[in-house]
Specification:
Elements (H helix, E strand, L loop, with lengths): L1 H12 L7 H11 L6 E4 L2 H11 L3 E7 L11 E5 L2 H18 L5 E8 L5 E10 L3 E8 L2 H6 L2 E5 L4 H9 L4 H4 L10 H17 L3 E12 L2 E4 L2 E5 L3
Antiparallel strand pairs: 1-4, 2-3, 2-4, 5-6, 5-8, 6-7, 8-9, 8-10
The structure holds adenosine-5'-diphosphate and magnesium ion.
Length: 233
């Protein structure tokens, strides 16, 4: 995984521990995890050009190494359908981010395709002081924030662990296709957990991984937001 090593060492060279959304998704893609194609636009014109290239509808997000929670900064605009939408979103994102984070260095915005809606899921890795790397799985959105409906397993995971992690969340019914919604593809999600586990197990220096959210579909899943944090040197 030459690409992964390059991204990690570039960040370390710049004394950064937090990878950008674009870098984080590049790493995850190398691991075999499907993420939305996400690119950086430094100007308003560039964001329009990239939107056309990627194909409408698109999503624009603030890109700044100083802003972690993009929505809190008014920095996420979804379902932009044409050039006028993108131009307006660009201006609004910039104005809001500058107002809320006056000292942030802003690289521009990221542009990515609008993913079709699915079941919102989160996956990640945190380091437990006694157990080391631990994977996390849960439902996204309000359920995870209010009910903390998540499960954990110590890395490395076996197939059985991945399966149990998914089965034991309280909101499991939602994954089975609640009220006529499409179900999630559970074996696909298990496979993602196993890929993540193998990656974490074989890659030293990763402190935290946050895929929040990914959308689960009946035929797969796609990560729409990701963040990787490296261990301090
Ligand atoms: P934050 O930094 O605030 O976590 P996110 O990138 O997670 O920002 O975006 C906020 C929300 O916008 C997500 O929870 C998701 O519901 C929606 N979203 C983000 N990216 C996309 C996308 N590519 N397609 C569809 N919805 C998206
Ligand atoms: Mg997010």
């Amino acid at each position: 995984m030459a690409n992964v090593n390059e991204i990690l060492s570039q960040a370390r060279k710049e004394k950064r521990t937090v990878l950008t959304e674009i870098e984080s998704k590049k790493v995850l893609r190398e691991v075999g995890i499907h993420c939305t194609d996400t690119r950086l636009a430094a100007t308003r014109e560039n964001s329009v050009a990239l939107s056309k290239e990627i194909g409408y509808p698109v999503v624009l997000k603030i890109s700044s190494k100083d802003i972690t929670h993009k929505s809190d900064a008014g920095g996420v605009k979804v379902n932009l359908k044409d050039k006028a939408d993108v131009e307006r979103a660009y201006d609004e994102i910039m104005a809001s981010a500058r107002k809320k984070f006056p000292n942030a260095v802003i690289e521009g915005v990221t542009v990515q395709g609008m993913a079709k809606s699915g079941i919102e899921v989160i996956m990640g890795m945190i380091k437990d002081p006694s157990f080391g790397p631990v994977l996390m799985f849960g439902l996204g959105g309000i359920l995870v924030e209010v009910l903390k409906d998540v499960s954990f397993r110590i890395v490395p995971l076996e197939k059985k662990d991945a399966s149990e992690m998914i089965q034991e969340i309280k909101g499991k019914k939602l994954l089975d296709g609640y009220r006529g919604q499409d179900p999630a593809n559970i074996p696909y999600l298990e496979d993602m957990l196993l890929k993540l586990s193998a990656f974490v197990d074989h890659t030293p220096g990763i402190e935290e991984i946050d895929m929040n959210p990914l959308f689960a579909y009946k035929d797969g899943a796609v990560v729409v937001d990701a963040r990787i944090i490296l261990s301090a040197a």
